[in-house]
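Here's what a typical entry looks like (Transposase IS204/IS1001/IS1096/IS1165 zinc-finger domain-containing protein):
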Amino acid sequence: MRATSLVKQMLGLRSVTVIEVLVRPHELLIKLRLTRSRLVCPKCSYATRACYDTRTLDSRWRHLDIGTHQTWLSCQLRRLRCPTHGVITEAVPFARPVGESRFTRDFEHLVAWGCAKMTVPNDSDHA
């Protein structure tokens, strides 16, 4: 099995191709490419094959850590012209729209779970 296929399976990513995996000290950068041909508006269900343009910089999202390495997903995104929302960056299947969050949904769910399950010490615990 190739390293890119292994990483894709480990992270449970759908509708993407892993292009490259860069291992740095305490950091893992995974470069992705979306596999779908249609661009989807992140705020509604509008989809089109027409690309307005391609962003010059890759978008990055923090994902769940793998071992002691912080994991980052990176992907070059296209923009589309939605009839309702105007020119907007396409949706990705693993994160909220660009500009709303720089974390994957899996990362956000883990943080929310941790907040719900952690106990908060009160003043009487320190007496």
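Strands lie at 16-24, 27-34, 39-40, 47-48, 53-54, 59-66, 69-75, 78-82, 86-89.

More examples are in the samples folder.
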